[in-house]
Input
Amino acid sequence: MNEVLLSIRNLNATYNADSNRSIHAIRDLNIDVLRGEVLALVGESGSGKSTMGLSILRLIESPHEIKGNITFNGVDEQVSVFDLDPYKIREFRWKKVAMVFQSAMNILNPVMRVEAQFIDTFEAHGIIDDYDKRINHYLELAGLGKKVRRLYPHELSGGMKQRVNIALALSCEPELLIADEPTTALDVVVQREVLYELRRLKEELNLTIIFITHDLGVASSIADRIAVFYAGRIVEINKKDEITNNPMHPYSKLLLSTAITLKTDKDSVLTQLEGTPPDLSVEIKGCSFYPRCPVRENACKSFTPNDQAKGEWVECIKPGAMNLKEVDNPRGERR
Amino acid sequence: MTVEAVDTNTYELNDDRSIVVIDKATVIFKSGHVRNYALDSVSLKIRRGEAVGIVGESGSGKTTLGLAVLKILRLNAGRIFFDGMDISRLRSKKLALFRSKTQMIFQDPYSSLNPYNTIFESVATPVFSNISRLESELQRKVTKREIRSMVSETLEKVGLSPGSAFLDVYPRKLSGGQRQRVAVARALIMHPKLVVADEPTSMLDVSITAQVANLLKSLQKEMDFSLMYISHELSTSRYISNRIAVMCLGRVVELGTSEDITKSPMHPYTDILIRSMPEVSSSGINDSIAKIDFNAYNGGIKGCVFAHSCPRKTEICTSEKPLLQEMGNDHEVACFHPIIA
Output
């Protein structure tokens, strides 16, 4: 369990929107993904979690830039993702690392039958035999019947499409699966089924899963470890139970307490997280959460941590210092 | 098409406590020769000053119900009363008055505000459309300066302060949460009696959801309008609404106080919905609860709409249509075998 499958060091991703504005979506990110775990990346939109997923597959292309080092310790070989030549990267994608994309509805080719999409994938990745057996096998793995093979995407429901996507992602036997908000467009009941399916597949195929989501509830129902993203960095990473029961970073704490659940007191006023995330096109000095943090102090401005790769990590000068009761209404604003 | 009687002995159409009375509303969308029952004989009352949550999965007809109540969609059968008036009969002046008393907040604050209009122009639109009525009520001209101060007051009410600073700003300068506040201000500036909010938080980030939920709840108390809160999300609905109606394939299958619905659901569908919700600090998913696929169905089903995947299904469920039945404490359920704790 503790073997490192993927290690990311000093990852920087920059989107060059136009000549005078570039957005630093990921800033000096370090993380180790362990073999056989489900790691959830949680954060608000624009926090860099999807960019990390795309970087692993090297799907960010010019004029945008990625820098840093990503090492993948596969079963048979160790590869450095950013050094692969164009031919090798094709082999690396899908065979080592596959991705389930966010928009389940639009990923499948609308004019191809489901089975043709599988054959397409097989041909692109050099698998030339046993198409029939393979297709049936992966559809069954994802909880679909054989009759789906002859259907077109428009004949499938949202949940079924997402299962086809999962089956396609698994069809070249990857070691790592990146699931980017795979359930966001789905209804709750279907969402739960897809989550259950992913969890089951992980056990069955000994997969490692990076699960990207903005929903803390979803993250805590599937993950072993949770990494909380804020402004292009991981501000806290720990085991699921630690993050959900005892968050140490003020941001994780606020994020958890703002989430509305069925147990929220109906007569209470919800804790609010004031302000907006920082503009990533300007350089951020010190703690990125400083302007919104209820327990900030002057020392936070010059805080420069760089030790994220550890399994447990809080990027805060005084972790756990914040007491929610004191900051119920941090700026005394009108509700 | 046959429309069955819905609990006729207690169902009064002219009810002073209710702002909206929906009586067997049916909306059918035709595609080719397929008839999709988006609303299948729905009856529901919304009381004055009350927040009702409409919960259901995609395709359950919750948005259709909201649009029908606002007279944006025409009913194929049934009637809807607003303040005692049948809305299908409203014309000209009365219709204009109805439009100013009912407002909608849309899902996506990025597309519901015109990017070429300043915040003042967007929020003042309802005022300008009702200017002649306003002037005849006040018996004098209303100046632009007055409207500007009216808009900036409303903006402050929704938490955009100082309001005057936002008047001449374009929407692109605002964040998602701020835009949704502007949309709320636009809905509230004419002091409506009914606001329909269609998934106002689903496009927003978690932290901003809390802001909008707080805002809607406090304004609803303060300005005393009725709120129809449409959402697929049970926990936010529960927080905002007094009562919740659970919809499934065009029918209301359960109706009750939000506490009752979430703590002791009686309809098997509501039960599955609640058990499927991902909760923070859950112990993880180790089992499968239910496989539901509504896509194969178009509504207008003879029996119960949930019979195809219901764990409690018996013969009667496929042959007879269950009607909403009072189970005590304002809790109504349309099921032959309700879960009784």
